[in-house]
Amino acid sequence: RKEVEQDPGPFNVPEGATVAFNCTYSNSASQSFFWYRQDCRKEPKLLMSVYSSGNEDGRFTAQLNRASQYISLLIRDSKLSDSATYLCVVNTNAGKSTFGDGTTLTVKP
Amino acid sequence: DTAVSQTPKYLVTQMGNDKSIKCEQNLGHDTMYWYKQDSKKFLKIMFSYNNKELIINETVPNRFSPKSPDKAHLNLHINSLELGDSAVYFCASSQDPTGGNTGELFFGEGSRLTVL
Q: Do A43 and B90 touch (CB under 8 A)?
């Protein structure tokens, strides 16, 4: 079983749609959680950290369920510019960041 | 100023050659990493250095040898290149997740290696 698992998609949605990505992790000792975004032929960049109480940044909402070892990312009112690959990242207390294989999103006009 | 810079951006070489990729960060971070992203876009950690000390060494062939002359630099040397080494290699850095730091990874733009 992979340490971090994501639905690879692809997700193809129209502009304005709401889309949710899920991620599960296997190491119950994981300490911190993130969503990164990677555009085609670019480097990954942090989209948002994921906190236990859940957190929101504009159209983006991240949730963490430690009991189920599950992380989610919700994007509301999708824009064309949201098209990218979204990577779930889990850190252990040893400082190791493990990336999921990514979920590809394409937002269409 | 680029925070994490790596060179070269593109590298095309023949099987059996030896090549190096260099990485520098000006963020004052303590930890630096090498990641490999293959043709399927899977991003896997290879090595991690904290203050010049190797702390993570995943299952990587010993043809790959990282070297950190100081905490701002982490280079990757690859001997006897093979076809399967073709990938994008990303350097990254982070600050230790203490004192409010999240441990966010800052990536370089990547070095695209093609082995012919």
A: yes
A9 touching chain B per CB within 8 A: no
Top mean-pLDDT range of A11-20, A45-54, B1-10: A11-20
Quote the Cα angle for A23-A96-B18, to 5°. Answer: 110
Question: How far off is chain B from A79, nearest CA to CA, in Å?
Answer: 23
Q: B98 and chain A: CB distance < 8 Å anywhere?
A: no
Distances (CA, A) of A51 to A41, A57, A66: 29, 12, 10
Closest CA to B34 of B56, B3, B11: B56
B109 in reach of chain A (CB within 8 A): yes
Residue B98's pLDDT is 61
Give residue B86's pLDDT: 96
pLDDT in tens, A40-65: 999 999 999 998 888 999 999 999 99
